[in-house]
Design brief:
Length: about 70
């Protein structure tokens, strides 16, 4: 299990990115823009949970720490 956070600041591309906080990421947003999502087995589950929490928003994995979920 790994802890995931979502960047509450929208990307220039219009989407919201989730990051893996357990493995760490060089591209984590500022602390104040991190919203804790909780622990998930992988980024796929974290993205699904975030999407059900914020329906209508485009949520994708970070290119660097959640690359397998990086699709819009
Ligand atoms: Zn990341």
């Amino acid at each position: 299990m790994a802890q995931f956070i979502i960047n509450k600041k929208q990307q220039a591309s219009g989407d919201y990115e989730i990051h893996n906080r357990t493995t760490g990421c060089a591209h984590l947003p500022e602390q104040e823009n991190q919203v804790n999502l909780g622990y998930y087995p992988g980024c796929k589950e974290a993205v699904e949970a975030a999407k059900s929490k914020w329906p209508g928003k485009v949520i994708i994995g970070c290119y660097y720490c959640a690359n397998s979920c990086h699709e819009s």
